[in-house]
Backbone:
């Protein structure tokens, strides 16, 4: 399917995990795709990589302008770059709060602000932000990360309202636990990796982790003209984690 032919997309955090799966699917569906990442060296054609740090406004502005020039505009922006944090509200020092909010919330602000002039010129403008299961569900040891992803959801609604009359749609995707290098790093740090993976699988009603490709499919749907009437929504791709309550004994 090449339904995105003629469209240009920018994906932040597109050198790994969900971002890479999304950039690859956008390209497969016919879009011209630029990836903005701290380290885009591993990217392969047709993806075009630009070095950018979303916590640095100068770097974001330069990379977005360079991407728009190479692509001939921007129709789709996927804000996927993000970092995690573990701890209760008592655990993380102020510097870490500033750092995580700077990347996860202000990072999205910087790329959106730099891309808006191009998006306004597009007939199919769409922004997709990446939230998380922690946006809607309280998980232990994720106070700071949850605060950042809750802000992503509220910002999605506010941006959708601000730009709907300019023809720019804004939505977000809330993944459950996704099998990416990020979760791989969390597993490596665990005392008993097999037990940790089993616990993460069991936390999802589907009994397994979400794949990056499954999240990418939802992002690409929201980014595509097929979702022309969809704006200001959050689409959960979480194996039922946010919405379902199953009995622990597996009985119906
Ligand atoms: P990942 O660690 O595999 O990939 C993240 C990418 O973002 C990397 O390529 C990294 O270089 C880039 N990045 C990080 N900081 C950056 C910065 N300051 N500027 C530019 N690029 C930067 O992570 P994954 O799992 O693919 O996560 C992607 C997004 O999905 C994140 O926003 C994360 O919060 C979100 N998410 C992930 C879940 C999971 O279980 N893996 C679940 C829910 C949400």
Residues:
């Amino acid at each position: 399917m090449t339904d995105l032919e003629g469209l240009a997309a920018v994906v932040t955090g597109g050198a790994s995990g969900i971002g890479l799966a999304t950039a690859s699917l956008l390209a497969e569906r016919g879009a011209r795709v630029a990836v903005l990442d701290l380290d885009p060296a591993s990217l392969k054609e047709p993806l075009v990589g630009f070095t950018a740090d979303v916590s640095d406004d100068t770097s974001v502005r330069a990379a977005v302008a360079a991407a728009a020039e190479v692509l001939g505009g921007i129709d789709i922006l996927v804000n996927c770059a993000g970092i995690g944090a573990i701890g209760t509200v008592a655990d993380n020092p102020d510097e870490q709060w500033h750092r995580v909010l700077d990347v996860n919330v202000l990072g999205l602000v910087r790329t959106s602000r730099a891309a808006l002039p191009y998006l306004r010129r597009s007939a199919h403008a769409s922004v997709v932000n990446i939230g998380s299961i922690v946006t809607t569900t309280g998980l232990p040891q994720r106070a700071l990360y949850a605060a950042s992803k809750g802000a992503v959801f509220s910002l999605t609604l506010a941006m959708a309202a601000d730009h709907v009359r300019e023809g720019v749609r804004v939505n977000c995707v809330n993944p459950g636990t996704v099998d990416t290098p990020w979760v791989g790093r969390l597993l490596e740090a665990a005392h008993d990796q097999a037990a940790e993976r089993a616990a993460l699988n069991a936390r999802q009603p589907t009994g397994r982790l979400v794949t990056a490709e499954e999240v990418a499919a939802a992002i690409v749907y929201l980014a595509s003209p097929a979702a022309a009437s969809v704006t200001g929504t959050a689409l959960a791709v979480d194996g039922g984690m946010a919405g379902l309550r199953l009995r622990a004994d597996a009985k119906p």
Summary: The longest strand covers residues 168-175.
